[in-house]
Structures are given as structure tokens and as C-alpha cells.
């Protein structure tokens, strides 16, 4: 129960970050940025996957993970682990894109990467422990 | 029991990796249509509309060499050369901020004035940029060329590069190449050169701000990054 609550709390942080970046994308406004590279990243082709903003995909992913914390059982734990690990792998790919082809770092994306790392770790622990 | 869980975890990880690989390769942000450039950037050359160059300008009125609403209270004229490294720095790093915070909000209108400071090859790029203006894609083309920028006077501005950039920004490449040699483009280039001469522009990039009923004012920027450029612009707008 505590583990699921912890996952839910971290998911809410992820939802907040992803929701802000989704808003920035659709409102065509500049994100608040301390790293100086947020807009370059947001306007890069890596910001969309088949026309869908990756921020929106992240928002959906966190919402699914949050929903999974409301369910008990092995199936929910397994599903959450798959989504979280996929999110972590995709975050890793986007971090590579920032460090490599784009050549700029978006602090919001890094925040999301850390959040996703924590969520994925907790989801893996949940899968190993779930009754 | 624990072993079964580890197997489940391995299956979950495998599914996750497959999903991400399929998403990246098949749906493709960084899929097979990318072309490495001399600057190391990666540009979508798939013809799907060049998201990077286009998304910055999406929904903003663009006519000839201007970007933004004609009702804006100030016009910021940008003097550039497509071969100029510092111009590239400003366009790639700072133009998105200027467009988002000043142009999209209707505070300023941008005007492009191209001048060949670096060399002969710049003229080919400028002709293509002004030709893109005929298709209301001048600013998109400017950024697309900076993304492809090579060594100064290495002859990197070629017809294939121009066509590739035209495709990326959603312009008709054949028409753009034809228009590049038109009398209209020649006249626009001459007007731009004369304007630069009158404004005593000695280098690129140069930024001149003119508020409604105001006198043109050269911005003495301390740097070309957003946090260096925008305070100078703000100060000039408030004067």
C-alpha cells in the first residue's frame, strides 16, 4: 500500500511536468527555462512522435501509471512495470537526443527523466513484491 | 517464487524495449529520413513538412520578408548573411524565443534583410531565401539554411541543398529555384543592399528596431543567446 502510494505521488509530479510541457507545446509559448536550451529542444523534431507531442505521450503514460496504483494484484503491477520501463527507455532516448543531435538540454526534460527513473524503480520493486 | 518474478520482470523489460524501438524506428522521430549536416544537426528531409523549422513559425502571418502582425508597435529588422556563423547562432538559439515572446504576442514584427558579407556563395543563399518569401516561407528558409550551414565560402550553398531545405519548409522546390533568378528577387536583394548601406550596417547580424513613429535604433546587443539578447530588446522597446 505504501509502495503504491509512493508511486502515485511521484506520478503526480510527472503529470505536472508533462502537463506543463504539453501546454507549452500547444500554446506556442516559451517554457520557463534555466538551462537556456528548452525552446531548442521543444522545437526540435524529437519533440514529436508521428505528430504527437512527446510531452502528451508522457502525460498519458503517467496517467496510466497513476491509474495502476489504484489497482491491486500482479497484472496491475506487471502492466505498470511495462509502461514505466518503456517510459524510462524513451526518456533515455530523448536524453541521448538532447546531448547529441539537438545539442541542448531542457531542464524540464531532465526533471521528467529523474521522475521516470524513480517511478520505474518503484514499479519494478512493486512487481517483485506484489502478492 | 522470486525466480518467477525475475522472469516476469525480464519479460516486462523486453516488452518495454520492443515498444520503444518500434515507436522510434517505425513512427520515427529520429528515423531513417534524417540527414546529418555539416554542423552536426539532424534535419528531417522526409518532405513531411520539416517540423523543426516550421513549428516555430506555425500560425504566424508571413508576407515577403516580414514575420508577424502588421499592427505590431515595432519592427525589428534583422540583417543577416546565410554563411554567417553568428547569424546562425542567433537564428537557432534565440529566434525561437523572440518569435514566441515578441512576434506571436504581436509586440514586434520581424523583417529580414539579407546582405552578402561573407562571399559570393552567400548570394545564392540570399536569392533562395527571398524566393522562399514569394511562397511566404522566407523565415522558414532562413532557419533551414542555417541548419545546413557549412564552412564559410566552401560552396556549401548548392542547388541540392536549397531544394532539400525548400522541401523541409514546405515550399515548392522547383518554383523556388526558378524564382531565385527572377527580376523580383533581384529587385528585393538590391533594395536590401541599399537599405543596409543607408543604415550603415557593417556586419551581421545587425538588429535595428523601429517603433511606430520612432527613429530606427541599432541594438547594441551584448550577446546572441536569449538571456543576453532579450534584455537589450526589452530596454529598447521600453524607451
Protein architecture, described:
The complex is a heterodimer of chains A (131) and B (239). Chain A has helices at 2-27, 38-42, 54-69, 74-102, 107-129, and strands at residues 48-49, 52-53. Chain A is mainly alpha-helical. Chain A has a two-stranded antiparallel ribbon. The longest helix of chain A is centred in the C-terminal third of the chain and has 29 residues, at 74-102. Chain B has 239 residues and is α+β, with helices and mostly antiparallel strands. Chain B has one domain: Glutaredoxin. Helices cover 52% and strands 13% of the residues of chain B. Chain B has a six-stranded mixed beta sheet. In chain B, strands 1-2 form a two-stranded antiparallel ribbon. In chain B, helix 2 (51-57) packs antiparallel against helix 5, helix 3 (85-103) crosses helix 5 and helix 4 (120-134) packs across helix 7. Chain B is globular, with a radius of gyration of 21 Å. The model of chain B is unreliable at 29-50 (pLDDT under 50).
